[in-house]
Amino acid sequence: MRYQKLAGGAGPEVSVLCLGVMAFGTTVDEETSFAILDRFAEAGGTFLDTSNNYAWWVDGATGDEAELLLGRWLKSRGARDRMVVATKVGARPDLSRGPLWCDKAPDGFGNMEGLSAGAIRAGLEGSLRRLGTDRVDLHYAHIEDRSVPLEETVGAFAGLVADGRAGLPGVSNHPAGRIAEARRTAARLGLPGYRCVQQRHTYLRPRPDADFGVQRHTDAGLFDYAAAQPDLTLLGYSTLMHGAYTREDKELPPQYEHEGSARRLRVLREVAAESGATPNQVVQAWMLGGRVPVLPVLGVSTVTQAPSLQARTIGVGVAPPPAAPSRSTRRRRALPSCAYCRGSALAPRVEPARSSVEHPHSLMP
What we know:
- 44% of the residues are buried.
- The longest helix has 17 residues, at 259-275.
- This protein has a single domain (3-266, 277-311), classed as NADP-dependent oxidoreductase domain (TIM Barrel, Alpha-Beta Barrel), CATH 3.20.20.
- It is 28% helix and 16% strand.
- It has helices spanning 30-42, 65-77, 117-131, 150-162, 176-188, 220-227, 259-275, 279-288, and strands at 3-5, 13-15, 18-20, 47-49, 84-89, 136-141, 166-172, 196-200, 233-237, 294-299, 314-318, 346-350.
- By secondary structure, the chain is of the alpha/beta class.
- The radius of gyration is 20 Å and the shape is globular.
């Protein structure tokens, strides 16, 4: 496992792979969830991602389930001090504000708790209670709420940091311009601004007209902004496309159905075969090796998918200029260029065999 510090070194050290527990406690039962969490921890994983609303959309669920289950696992394993825990606020349904469904709301969702100061404070209090802890290490604004002034929102997140109940403030599913504006607002007020950004991100690129509802995909604007902000860490969710990289019978989401996807998938599978890694492992390494690295937030729902949490010791980074081959250099097969890396060819980099035994957890990047 490789590790890095969040927020350009100002935050806690985390495993570069983050385990998302969105389905735990609802569509993934407790026994399976605990087994996956155990496998992740055994492989050196230290970074866990949840939210105060997972997974309310499942029949019979309330949105408490994922945090409650994670809290039980942390307590039963005595693992709280070893894990960096992230949660989110803002997208939990608040039926006291009216009906859940609203035709005028993005993706039909209406009356979420939002990002007022009161909602942020109450949301974290509920999360801490369910997680069985007195502090979270990373606290995200889950979706946009333009009905609340940015001064109020960033002030509320900063207040929880000052109180010691939250570590870093973060943001998810916001456009780059809004993120930049929020960080400028925090700086003007002398407050800590968002230090982590979590957006939808994967190796395949969406159609230009793709609609993800309240979700936000990474784009060139975000990468340009992040490249100039060394104190900002990017994370990506939905990175493994629900099995589309490893199962040829799995249909792509419609947002990714275009001519370029078939080409990128073909080359991805060729790179995986040449490197001896799985396509998922190559995607993870590609994300970590870009001009602006993106930490993968992995969703795993069965123990048989656990190899996704145990990547080979490979890297996918910017390929160097062509050079004369040597006995110590393996042939590189370039992945298609990423529009957000300014045309750099990305290729697998296979580390010397000795590096795979430097640490018992080095089966993961």
